[in-house]
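Dear U.,

For the methods section draft, I wanted the exact inputs and outputs in one place so we can describe them consistently. I've listed the two proteins in the order they'll appear in the manuscript figures. Please don't edit the token lines directly; just add comments below if something needs changing.

First protein:
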Amino acid sequence: MEPRFLLLSDVAAELNVSDSQVYHMVRSGELPAIKIGGRGQWRVERARLEEYIQLKYAETAAWVRDNPLTERDAE
């Protein structure tokens, strides 16, 4: 069974980005997360990560639709 909550390093591995990029995404509110424990360690719920990924697919699809390739871009 997969864990419900992920470490920021686990999220970074899933997204193939750096730990610091994930930390910035969490601190900016772009990626929902919680702080737990006495040391305030960040955790991202797996379901929230999947929602975030789906949101990014939708945003990318909209960007591609609004910015079609031109012949110059194809070169």
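Second protein (the one for the lower panel):
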Amino acid sequence: MFSPFERAVAFRYLRARKGERFVSVIAIFSLVGIALGVATLIIVMSVMNGFRQELLGRILGLNGHLGVYSQTNEGLRDYDDIAARVRQLAGIVSATPIVEGQVLFTSENGGATGGLARGIRPEDLRARPLIAENIRAGSLQRFGEQDTIVVGTRLARRLGLRIGDKITLVSPQGRATVVGTVPRLKAYEVVAMFEAGMQEYDSSYVFLPLDAAQVYFQHRDTATQVEVFVANPDRVNDATRAIYAALSGRPVRVLDWQASNSSFFAAVQVERNVMFLILTLIIIVAAFNIISSLIMLVKDKGRDIAVLRTVGATSGAILRIFLLAGASIGVAGTLIGFGIGLVFCLNIENIRQALQSLTGTELFNAEVYFLTRLPAVVEPMEVAQVVGMGMGLSLLATIYPAWRAARLDPVEGLRNG
């Protein structure tokens, strides 16, 4: 597309000579602007993808993809039969009876906080990778013995708990006595501490054996829900229809993760789209810098263009020379930004730790951002779109200045030069 002569002239114009350094400096700023815009866009989009994936994985890893509930307030009486029927459906990974309720946690050290107590069979809890693979103290081997409990690490730190200590659960649904309603209190021994990596779960969730939770919450023959995991979380609608068909005639309702967390993930998606639009403006501004630098280069090289035209260079050759000069800035800046963005994303947690050590401040508070580490997931198609946009805008920015150069009258150029 470009002849050796055109390439030689274009790259010669990009190198500054004495008295032409201002044009070269603007070209360098344009290259840096494109590189920073592309790198920033790749990094931010990767972090937003990481947030969504981490939150989705941790929320669904603990709460399940679907929940089968009773349409009445009495709970599910035949929960084992419902779970068995659901497990037989195609695409279902597991179906687990759960009893849960809001409680107040207190410890012997005097600490107190609210949270959620979940009753689950010991074998089902051990089958949960998010819990079983993230035990930080103790063991799940004793879980299931009388009056045992598993707590989150942040909750344990808040209440000053260690393995073997007692934690007391206080239910707001008290029991009636002759002197009035008295809150239900029960002490349990801490046998394990988990760290799911999400602040909300680590600081407010505990797990009891299912039978112990049924006694405590007065659900002796019922379960709050049957928690269901499916093979493909994005196709929960198909699983929902299959569950309704398998449980036809039973007074149940099915709630999937999309309905349960719709506002949360919608907010993440809106924020991601807005950040993409805002950061795209950086690349657009850098593209305008390319326009300004090329226009100044055309003005500065008016006499050279006239000489080239008089010795036989066509207007098309002049057009291609300045297209190549501007596109070189854009392509180089885009590729540099691509490299910086990928390196930053691959080492983002190490970079965060290093910056925290240098500044002495916490840059990623788990209590604010829900997660305990900064995630980044690079989507190849998304990166390709960013790189393509950077190169496309850079190429578009060169069209008008190159067209101006090609239309320059040689006589006027020699006269004014």
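Candidate sentences for the figure legend, describing the second protein: The first strand starts at residue 66 and ends at 70. The chain has a mean pLDDT of 82.

Thanks,
Y.
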